[in-house]
Each structure stands twice: as structure tokens, then as C-alpha cells.
Amino acid sequence: MTTLRIWGPGQGRSADYVRQNWRNRDDFPQPSGILPARGRHGGGRGELLFDQAELDAWLTAQPDLAAPERIDPGTVQNPDDRITLGRFAALIGKDRKTVTQHRDRPGFPEADANSTYRTGDLLDYWNSRPGRRGPSRPR
């Protein structure tokens, strides 16, 4: 048994993303139970419990929710090299705008005075970002 708060991050998604986008689908597994509320005074709703095997089987059966593509660290020759975002985009085979739109997001590496970034930091960020797996709304 698990909760969406625990299961979601293991799938590269936040619990809120799973609740708002995936749980709306007709074939999403039904909860198997509920945990009691943990509030100081016992108020509020508790978390729903799900069978982890059912959640994993459901996700496997969703072809439009394939895991986000990750970049092999072996493609980077020296992780300490300083490069621009445009050069990083070219290294990983993405459009420059796809990479630069992440600049203002939490966890994105800081640029130095020459507006270059450490290659290893960019690669670590790129492989750990949540990204999108499918449509945000059910059909």
C-alpha cells in the first residue's frame, strides 16, 4: 500500500500533478483505504491509500505517459567544462529554447560572469527535472 505523495515522485511527478492530471482518468485505480488525518486536532481528510502494484500496472499500460527522456552522462566528455545553454542544447540534441525556458525554475544551475554553466550541473538538472509525460487533461 502507498499514497500518491510517496508514489508520484518515484514516477518523476509530484503528488499534486498525479492527483490533478492522472487521477482524473477513467481507468485510474481506485483507492483501497484511507489513512487517518494527521492534523494537530485531527481535522481534515486523511490520505488515500492505493495498491502500489495496481498503480505500477496502470502506468505501464498508459503509452502516452512514457517516462521522460534522460540524457546519458557518457555523452559529456568533461563535466567541469563551462558551456553556454545553446551549446548544451546542441550536445543533447534539443532546441535551444527547450533548454533556456528552464532558466528561472528552482534548482537550475547558476551562470558565471561569462553566462556559461558547468556542464555536469546542467546535465544533473536536465536528468532530474520532472518534465511532462502526457496531456494535462483527460480526453
- The strand line-up of the biggest sheet is 1-2
Number of helical stretches of at least 4 residues: 6
What count of domains describes the coordinates? 2
Decide which structural class fits the backbone: mainly alpha
User: Share of helix among residues?
Assistant: 25-40%
Explain this structure:
With 139 residues, the protein is mainly α. A two-stranded antiparallel sheet has the order 1-2. It is built from six helices and four strands. Helix content is 34%, strand content 6%. The protein has helices at 4-10, 15-22, 52-60, 85-92, 96-100, 119-128; strands at residues 33-34, 48-49, 82-83, 117-118. The protein is elongated. The longest helix has 10 residues, at 119-128.
What is the topological layout?
Blueprint: H1 4-10, H2 15-22, E1 33-34, E2 48-49, H3 52-60, E3 82-83, H4 85-92, H5 96-100, E4 117-118, H6 119-128
Antiparallel strand pairs: 1-2, 3-4
Helix pairs in contact: 1-2
Summarize the structure.
This protein is mainly alpha-helical. It contains six helices and four strands, in the order ααββαβααβα. Helix 1 (4-10) packs across helix 2.
Attribute tags:
139 residues, mainly alpha, two-stranded antiparallel ribbon, 6 helices, 6% strand, elongated
